[in-house]
Amino acid sequence: FARIYTPIVVALATAVAIIPSVFTGNWNYWVYTALSFLVMSCPCALVLSVPLAFFSGIGAGSKKGILFKGGLSIEAMTGVKAVIMDKTGTITKGEFKVQQIAGGLDVLKLCASCEQQSTHPIAVSIVSAAKERNMELFTPDALEEIPGRGIKATADGKTILCGNERLMWENAVQFGVLDEVSGTRVLVAVDRRFVGYLVIADAVKDGAKAAIAELNARGYATAMLTGDSEDSAKKIAAETGIGQVFAKLLPEDKLTRLKQLRKHYGSVMYVGDGINDAPVLAGADVGAAMGSGADAAIEAADVVFMTSDVAAIPEALHIAKQTAKIAWQNVVFALAVKALVMILGLLGHASMWMAVFADSGVAMLCVLNSIRLLYQKK
To answer: What pLDDT does 325 receive?
Structure first.
């Protein structure tokens, strides 16, 4: 901006000082006019107020537990057309409890022993259920956590699988037709023999329904991407008012689905919290992570909701739009006043005091307009 703007302004001021003076001989008047023109054209209002508007937006967000990772994050949020969310830990509390055990307590013991080292909320709930029953868990000889599928472990020469249906299919485990359940099902197999399953249920976060209703009311499309069962996902979506549901997705499936939604809606925002969400967060136009989520998700996100509250989603979008609105107000106001005073100056109707107002006065008014974001209650 300076590389283009400054030479033009200096050239115009020089022309104003010299050309009329040569013809009129009134050097004193036209040099004074040229100096006034230089003061008027100084872009302090733009240089100060526009970045300050974004800094105020970042500050307003931080007061509400919303961490914007810079002005670009705020600017990107102003164009968002659809909000896409993960289910577990984002819309729901991530506080799972074992609701059903099919196949006997040995199924719980096998699964809990394999899940001891995992930090996934489902794994934690399974281990907690085993400890509540005072079970003595064993340590597997080898263990592999497979993202989006589950765990494969070896103990006493036996291969133990704990995970979703896809994990069973990939390892040629036959489990037949299972009854519909309301929750997440963890299947267990030993040496490719299906032995039973656990059903784990989660609860919707307080305020999630109101937050999603607010998003829908503001015209944002809403969608849920989850690796959980379709029945569980549809139940949560119906309870909260989410428009579209895509279930049984692996991390790479989520990214594919995100690209399809972006092609349909335009700019999209993805909200997640797990390590599996990191690729999707990085691939979205705006990635937002819950503060209680995995470090990988927080690192990949553009915005972090430190309160892990769903209500922070519409709040962040509102702050972003207000920030952009104030920045444009400053731009239009500063340029309009400067253009008016410069024209008056060239016509000989603006003195140096008007030039000072067009520079410092307008800058201060724009600064005051910018910082009002910090004092808005809503």
So the answer is: 93
Nearest to 33 by CA among 360, 343, 363: 343
Residue 193: strand, helix, or coil: strand
Task: Say how many CA atoms lie within 13 Å of 346 toward its Cβ.
Answer: 14
Q: Name residues whose C-beta falls within 8 Å of residue 136's C-beta, 6 or more positions apart in sequence.
A: none
DSSP helix/strand/coil, 81: coil
Could you give the CA distance from residue 152 to residue 141 in angstroms, rounded to a whole number?
A: 11
Single-letter amino acid code for the residue at 6: T
Q: Answer yes or no: 191 catalytic.
A: no
Catalytic: which of 86, 202, 273, 309? 86
Angle between helices 230-240 and 208-217 (to 10 degrees): 70
- The Cα–Cα gap between 273 and 288 comes to 8
pLDDT of residue 377: 66
For residue range 50-79, list pLDDT tens digits in order.
888 999 999 999 999 999 998 899 999 999
